[in-house]
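Title: Prediction job returns without error message
Component: structure pipeline
Severity: low
Priority: P3
Assignee: unassigned

Description:
Job completed but the reporter wants confirmation the result is attached to the right record. Sequence as submitted:
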Amino acid sequence: MSGLPAIPATLPRRHSRLSQKLGLFLLKSLGGWTITGSVPDYKKMVIVVAPHTSNQDFFVGIAAALALDLKIRFLGKHSIFVWPVKGLLTSLGGIAVDRSHPHGVVGQVVAEFQQSDSLWLGLSPEGSRKKVENWRSGFWFIAKQANIPVCLVGLDYQHKQLVFGPCVTVGENFADDLQRMRSFFQQMTAKYPENA
């Protein structure tokens, strides 16, 4: 589809022209969003999407994934994966996680990566739409334990752009890695900047 970044052939795909058209329609309907940057060529990775200050962020992300024909997964509390929404959430890429599981959410997600040939997992590091001082570290531990990169994707409401940024190989220190990642996201304008 024209106007979209090139998609490497090895990535997890939906293979649905209808989904692509729906995604493009949604991006236009949500205010004329565009997708910029280079789509990374990794079969497995954690996608950190920020800043997250609005429910609309989720819909922009889903619309972009559909438009690009990418199968990007996201986490949801297991209790919301019930009829009648379970089928919809699963088809959109939802993975049900049980926070009371003995291995924790990180362990469940790492196991999911180990069992998959290709898996892209999109996460919001803030864990909330409200202003937070510290990002959650789960995405970092998932990437470290699964030995996969973290790709940074920014939501820039000022320019109505979803921006594919750099991919980061996590090191030994969360704080150091986080500082590198935040420098990319500081270039983005949140829907509600006071919460970013």
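Comment from assignee: result matches the submitted record. The mean pLDDT is 91.
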